[in-house]
């Protein structure tokens, strides 16, 4: 199995050529940001960040969600302004909703909005058709093409040069799982939509023998919390053991099962942090990491001068080459990562 990526030491900026990457047929780069802007004062530096990204001519840009702060109002006016900010990029832009953008909107500081109503508004505003944001749009497949999941326009899929990309609406704050009594309707319905969308993506990748799959979401699913050693959840866990419900557990288990059955390289990317991280997050029951699955966590506010850049080089190993970029192009120390186990 191909190793998912290699983290190099920082190098000078890539040449400003469209889809710049190592000189190999089909090679391209894409950029990932998230958790910006967090407040009104962030907008100007984020504008500079977006301009710097555009100058690198990425194939596309992904915003992992939280394009507003937790305490900023979830008003139409603010959402429309942040929409226009992303839409001003020249490159195609794929936006994934974050918890600050909808599921936290019931908080008084955010305007006491109904979260589901705000999610519906995001869908109307950011996903009116099958094109991305950005001045140079790209067509994507949306889960809303399926009648059963007509409302899930934010879940997308597209392919580029033998790599399949898939996005999921997985917000922070425990995946919007509610601890109050009664049915978690929004959570349960979205969980099933995500489950089917992710399963279909890997089925397509296997059938077409694609070189790699990239899965992107807003939330940190907390891969390091020991979930792989837990037994299946029990109805009595919450009542008798006072065990908190892991809103990401089903997703983590599905990812482990799907990646085991897929021979290509897998890259998981999420936000929900201020710091960059690179590791192998999926482990078996004995704690051994899966060497062909990598996870990258990108930056967020108050870090406003850095972004994540991924170069994709089909036909080479590693398929994904990930690095941090900074506005002034000064070197960023590479994170340490445990060597891949022998195959």
From TrEMBL:
Residues 46-126 form the Calcineurin-like phosphoesterase domain. Residues 332-343 have a biased composition (Pro residues). GO terms for molecular function: hydrolase activity. Residues 319-343 are annotated as: Disordered. InterPro entries: Calcineurin-like_PHP (IPR004843), Metallo-depent_PP-like (IPR029052). This is Calcineurin-like phosphoesterase domain-containing protein. It comes from Ralstonia thomasii.
């Amino acid at each position: 199995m191909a190793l998912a990526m290699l983290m190099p030491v920082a190098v000078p900026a890539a040449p400003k050529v469209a889809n710049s990457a190592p000189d190999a047929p089909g090679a391209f780069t894409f950029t990932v940001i998230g958790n910006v802007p967090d407040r009104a004062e962030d907008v100007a530096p984020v504008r500079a960040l977006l301009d710097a990204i555009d100058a690198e001519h990425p194939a596309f840009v992904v915003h992992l969600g939280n394009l507003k702060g937790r305490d900023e109002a979830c008003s139409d006016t603010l959402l429309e302004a942040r929409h226009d900010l992303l839409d001003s990029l020249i490159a195609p832009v794929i936006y994934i909703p974050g918890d600050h953008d909808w599921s936290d909107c019931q908080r008084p500081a955010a305007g006491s909005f109904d979260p589901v109503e705000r999610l519906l508004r995001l869908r109307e505003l950011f996903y009116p058709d099958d094109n991305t944001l950005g001045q140079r749009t790209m067509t994507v497949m949306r889960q809303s093409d399926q009648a059963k999941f007509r409302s899930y326009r934010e879940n997308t899929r597209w392919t580029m040069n033998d790599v399949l990309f898939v996005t999921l609406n997985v917000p922070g704050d425990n995946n919007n799982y509610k601890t109050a009594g009664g049915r978690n309707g929004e959570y349960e319905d979205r969980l099933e939509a995500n489950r089917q969308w992710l399963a279909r993506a890997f089925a397509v990748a296997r059938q077409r023998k694609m070189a790699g799959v990239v899965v992107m979401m807003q939330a940190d699913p907390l891969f390091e919390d020991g979930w792989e050693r837990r037994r299946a959840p029990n109805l009595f866990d919450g009542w008798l053991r006072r065990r908190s419900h892991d809103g990401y557990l089903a997703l983590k288990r599905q990812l482990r099962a799907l990646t085991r059955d897929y021979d290509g390289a897998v890259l998981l990317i999420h936000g929900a942090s201020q710091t960059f991280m690179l590791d192998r997050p999926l482990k078996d029951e004995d704690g051994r990491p899966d060497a062909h699955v990598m996870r990258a966590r990108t930056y967020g506010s108050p870090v406003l001068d850095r972004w994540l850049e991924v170069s994709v080089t089909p036909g080479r190993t590693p398929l994904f080459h990930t690095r941090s970029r900074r506005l002034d192009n000064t070197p960023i120390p590479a994170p340490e990562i445990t060597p891949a186990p022998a195959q």
